[in-house]
Amino acid sequence: MDTATREHLERQQYRIVGESGAVKLCHWMRQKLLYGRPCYKEDFYGIQTHRCLQMTPAVNVCNHNCLFCWRYHGMTEFGMSKRAGPEELLEGCLREQRSLVSGFKGDPRCDPEAWKEAREPNQVAISLSGEPTLYPELGEFIALCKRRGMTTFLVTNGSVPKALASLDPLPTQLYVTVAAPNPSIYERLCVPRFPRAWENLMETLRLLPSLGTRTVIRHTLVQGHNLGWEDEYAKLDEVAETDFIESKGYVFVGDSRTRMTIDNMPSHSAVREFSSRLGEMLSLDVLREREDSRVVLLGRKGARLRVSP
Fold first, then answer.
1. Over the stretch 260-277, which tens digit does the pLDDT of each residue have?
2. Which domains does the chain have, with CATH numbers?
3. Mean pLDDT for all residues in the chain
4. CB within 8 A of 71, min separation 6: which ones?
5. Angle, helix 183-190 to helix 197-207, in steps of 10 degrees
């Protein structure tokens, strides 16, 4: 990792592990420890917000420059030749997580038991930044988490279907971001850095029904860019046959503020209307929603929401 990238990430409170791994506390960790407010994933899927390790094996490695992404786009190196191995990566992330939560101990608003639990994560969100399927030892990393009794949520842009097809074991829950209804919007909004990226995403969607794990399509909705086109999104979702669909409004945070404006954040009502129309087309119900996160969950009535290791 070049010095400028490392310094920029560290100023944003990323803790770097090796040359490409990283961990960072999310907004909801603070909310849960100090005010008892969980993130929407706790409401939807039963994970414990304060015991979630938000990390990435590829903080400075991505094959897209999505306009809505909160990550830094000024990176000059994209190789992973000096990457940490799975054991080093997990141990380093756990060590940095404990360091990051240490300051909460002396806050009178923080429950002591919750603080102790926060130091021992039982859920790993492989989603912080970059494209994790570019990490060659992702399967081994997930296996290590599984052996330690941790659930894993993997978020991918779907650009490397071969990596997903060969991934063993699979994560507890696999998210694929579908942030565009058609190739032209995809090119403008997701800005892929390699040819045939849309075709690779389509291959991933066709692969999903054959994978033996929980799958979720995430539609990241950006006002003025990709909100609408429900009929086209529905056709993509029909191919994927996922367990759930999350429609989530873009949030004006991080480095996305250099590329977007606050007007690109859709209201929760706009996300709800989009989801309702999409659900009608796919015969799916609204199972959950969180207005503070501008997110709506679609699925079949009676579907099992809670995850287990």
1. 999 999 999 999 999 999
2. 3-299 (3.20.20.70)
3. 95
4. 59, 62, 129, 130, 254, 255
5. 110
> How large is the average pLDDT for residues 182-194?
97
Which residue has 């991080």 as its token pair?
A: 254
User: Please, which residues bridge with residue 125 across strands?
Assistant: 54, 153
User: Has residue 80 got a pLDDT over 80?
Assistant: no
> pLDDT per residue over 103-135, tens digit each?
999 899 999 999 999 999 999 999 999 999 999
